[in-house]
Amino acid sequence: MRSVPARIHAARAPGGMPDRGARGFTLVEMIVAIALIGLLSVMAAPLLRIPLVAWMDASRRADLGASADLVQDKIGADLARALPNSVRVRQLGARVWLEYMELRAQGRHRAGTRAAAPACAAMCSTPGGNDMLEPACNETCFTSLGPLQGDPPLAGSDWVVVNPLGPGVPAGDPYFGGNAVVAGGIKARLVDLAPAADGTRLRHAAHSFPATAASHRFYLVATPVSYECNPTTQRLLRHAGYAVAAVQPTTFAGADSVPLANNVAACSLRYTPAGALGRGGVVSIWLRLARAAADTGALESVEIHNQYVVSEVPP
């Protein structure tokens, strides 16, 4: 038998009309469905917004807290390496600068007889003539008593600083003379270092140090460092690698300037010397960081209140 191809016929209701159950959505039904979906979305939006806003708030608080922790840790680590009697503060309007000299290493020097008329040692080229460090002598070298403490100094750029604890200016002022070796100053440029039998032999630019410390301590200093707080630009900057200036600078040509914090709303930097001889002191810092909420514009802030000791004998 011959097979007859199957045919699909549209179902028809009695009377020849198509079956209404086989058709799609009408335009009215589609509009109603879209309206219902939109209504459900509007009702669900607040439920979705609450966790989103909570996440944004938590993220903003975490960022402010992390910035505050970074500022405190960095300033604390820096001031632990500050040369004693080198911290100074300057303020112009809302802007404030805190500057110090960064300590590279320290040690003790051999001292002479400390007589009224010291016997100046022989030139460095003379064997045994480079041991003691005598005040009022035109020194070019001396040998430390034992090893240096700290990081390896950089010859040609670092400074030898002797007795930054004396009162008054220029005595005890490491900034006196700026970036040059001057008569009456307490610093001289380091030329080179060499190991000695029981210490380190240091050569420096010829200089007559006005006095030595009773502790016979000397310091090897790298570069000045400045913190600049500017609420107008809302930034806390750290400047390093610039030349020593007799007057505390507010601009830093050639410096390595790094933003340490943004969103700075207000700040205060102060230094209180410990006694008349400037044997260390205390740096007090207050800083407020604030950020506005994206949805309401309300400010959320975190404040830093801290004090750091600048010791006569840094670690």
Low-pLDDT runs of 5+ residues are 4-11
Strand content bin: 35-45%
- What would the average pLDDT be, to the nearest integer? 82
Number of strands: 13
Query: Rounded to an integer, what's the Rg over CA atoms?
Result: 36 Å
How would you characterize the overall build of this protein?
It is a single chain. With 315 residues, this protein is α+β, with helices and mostly antiparallel strands. It has 2 domains: 126 residues, no CATH class; 122 residues, no CATH class. The protein is elongated, with a radius of gyration of 36 Å. About 3% of the residues have low confidence.
Write the layout of secondary structure elements.
Elements: H1 27-79, E1 88-92, E2 95-108, E3 138-143, E4 149-150, E5 159-162, E6 187-196, E7 199-208, E8 217-230, E9 235-240, E10 256-262, E11 264-273, E12 281-292, E13 299-310
Antiparallel strand pairs: 1-2, 2-4, 2-8, 3-7, 5-6, 5-8, 6-7, 8-9, 9-10, 11-12, 12-13
